[in-house]
Design goal:
The protein is an alpha+beta fold and 319 residues long. The chain contains 8 helices and 9 strands. Helices cover 44% and strands 19% of the residues.
């Protein structure tokens, strides 16, 4: 949403909370499954709308492709090479065509928080937007979405960024999807970003600087992966067995999970691989002024400083 003023968006009568880089919210740091990479120099927040990349390849390749490969193997073992060739002719296109289509299409770039330069980078339709961390403007707002199945609590978290070399053009960049989140959760996410930028790169559960990476790694490890579904199902069954104290604890849901999740495992793994390759391939789309500032020995000048230098040079040349 284009924002040429600092006035926060109005969704309803619910009050909007303004967030500052130098003001604590009272919540503890909480990572909401949106940090895709965190290093000593920068943190990357997943772009809204990129989580489904690889799903098409996973479904066709993981079910149709793997199934065709299994039948092809059976055909070879039984000496039915014509059947094996036919299965391969079906399975390979089912996997390769959607794989190439999803990997070659660029993914939305993440929002980058650069500790070295103290600024944030955001890509919008190929245009670079940015903002200094010092004095950053952020807003969070809780609202309710109502549908036929009932209401869903939502809370947005957005930061104001300006276009590089055109600071008069600004917009509000969303940090993660708002669905299923509360105001407290988004404040916790903001505290996570504050802890990283102000006290990081590593910090404890209170947001204070720490030489240990234990808390950060524990937060990042919570992010669920589809391919871990079978492992999580086994862990849940084990917990319920202990809680049942020897009585019958197995249900039809347990049986369905133990049967279906291993079948879906190849599809989940192929989706994750496709998504990872597409994301890695998209990284080159950042302009050089960003990529060189993400390096350990790169320049530390902020983009806003470059804009000021260019403005001064323009004024001097006109005089």
């Amino acid at each position: 949403m284009d924002m040429n003023t600092s006035e926060p968006p109005r969704y309803s009568a619910t009050p909007t909370v303004m967030l500052k880089a130098d003001q604590a919210t009272g919540e503890q740091p909480m990572e909401l499954f949106i940090v895709e990479e965190q290093t000593e120099h920068y943190l990357a927040v997943t772009a809204v709308g990129d989580s489904s990349r690889g799903l098409f390849t996973g479904v066709l390749g993981g079910i149709g492709g793997v199934g065709a490969l299994i039948f092809a193997t059976i055909g070879v073992l039984q000496g039915m090479f014509d059947v094996a060739c036919m299965m391969l002719a079906i399975g390979l296109p089912l996997t390769l065509i959607p794989f190439l289509w999803e990997v070659l299409r660029p993914l939305p770039l993440p929002t980058l928080f650069n500790r070295r330069t103290g600024e944030v980078y955001f890509d919008h339709d190929g245009e670079l937007f940015h903002t200094p961390w010092q004095g950053i403007e952020a807003v969070t707002h809780e609202f309710q979405m109502v549908g036929l199945a009932g209401g869903t609590r939502c809370a947005s978290l957005e930061i104001r960024v300006a276009q590089f070399e055109s600071p008069e053009s600004a917009l509000m960049a969303s940090l993660g999807a708002p669905f299923g989140k509360s105001l407290a959760m988004q404040k916790g996410m903001w505290e996570y970003l504050r802890a990283y930028m102000n006290n990081g790169p590593w910090f404890d559960e209170q947001g204070n600087h720490s030489e240990s990476t234990a808390f950060v790694k524990s937060q990042l490890a919570i992010r669920p992966r589809m391919s871990d579904g079978f492992k999580r199902a086994l862990a849940q069954i084990k917990r319920e067995k202990q809680e049942a104290g020897g009585s019958n604890y197995l249900t039809s849901n347990h049986v369905i999970a133990l049967i279906c999740l291993p079948i879906l495992y190849p599809a989940d793994r192929i989706q994750e691989l496709t998504h990872s390759l597409a994301k890695r391939r998209s990284r080159h789309r950042w302009p050089r002024v960003v990529t060189e500032r993400l390096k350990a020995n790169g320049p530390t000048t902020r983009l806003v400083d470059l804009e000021r230098e260019q403005a001064l040079k323009s004024v001097k040349s006109q005089n």
